[in-house]
Amino acid sequence: MTEKRHSYRAELVRLMDALADAAVEASDEAILAEAREAGSDPAAEAERVRAVLLRAVRAKQTEPLRKARRQYEAEAARLKTKAYHLPETAAQRRQLLFDFLAARPQMQSMVTVQFRELDQLSDADIEISLKKLAELGLLHEGEGNSEKK
Amino acid sequence: MSVDDSEAANLDEVRQAIEQLTTADALRLKKFAYWRMRSLGSVARGRDHEDLLAEAVAATLDSSRRTWRKGAVDFVRHLRMTMQSISDGWRDRKDFSQILEAELYPADPDEMVEDPLGAAVPTPATQEDELIAREALEALDQALAGDATAKDVLSGMRGDMTGPEIKEALGISETELQSARRKITRHAAALQTRFGPTAIPRKE
Known about the structure:
The complex is a heterodimer of chains A (149) and B (204). Chain A has 149 residues and is mainly alpha-helical. Helices cover 66% and strands 3% of the residues of chain A. Chain A has helices at residues 8-25, 28-37, 42-61, 63-81, 90-103, 108-112, 123-135; strands spanning 83-84, 146-147. In chain A, strands 1-2 form a two-stranded antiparallel ribbon. Chain B has 204 residues and is mainly α. Chain B is 64% helix and 0% strand. Chain B has 8 helices and no strands. Chain B is globular and about 50 Å long.
């Protein structure tokens, strides 16, 4: 049977754990005196400890908000990279948008209020408008439905 | 013993308990966290006592982990037990990986044993830890030269004896024990600059 070697590392770990326990078992006077001997201000040091602990409480408290923000940012990034089946040329895309709006005049202001008059829309404006309509499911089959890359 | 959810402290109660920590209690928690992290050595991986303190609070506020049953235990004791549990967990993950390493890559083929999991087969990483630990312990011994009581108390702590066990074995008073412990702590803290964990940049 192989003998277990003596481990100095394990001994040092035991010592440090014992020092941790000793800290908790020390009297108030001893703890405060030790801090002063080390040259620190016990009150300031304690305030820092409370600040660390309270920061952790705040982090927990704002966790739902941060999670929602992360989800929103992930969705925004996803939309940016999503592929849409739009007509290949700018002229075709412009025609698609015009046809769509001609069939649904009530939606014209929804598009132009963000940009300009229809005939002043740039190719980029046209593309963005079509993507938004596709994302909302307003572009029907064959009109440029979206799919993930 | 089943946990009664109605006893579990909520976020506001935990916040209040923190705000009401006395100076001494706050310092106790800090020192406990400090030494627990130091004992992890390189496994700490850049984490320090503030990370352990924060993790203990996060665990306390996570209903699936260690809620504070305020009717059963005071807040300081709860945080202490939680930090102990968390740091044990971090340490155990390292011990497992070392055993695996020892099993697969013995430093010296002549030292290979038939039952690798039954004995500590040294690896290059473990040998360095052993050397550093041995030098740290010898340095601490030398620092306490001339103080027989402190050296005896140190021996007890290295041997995993509790405070009451040390007092009884040595026939010393609580005051003498505390005094010796303070001296040991002071010297051990001073030696950390020489024998602390491998310098790893603190995570941002």
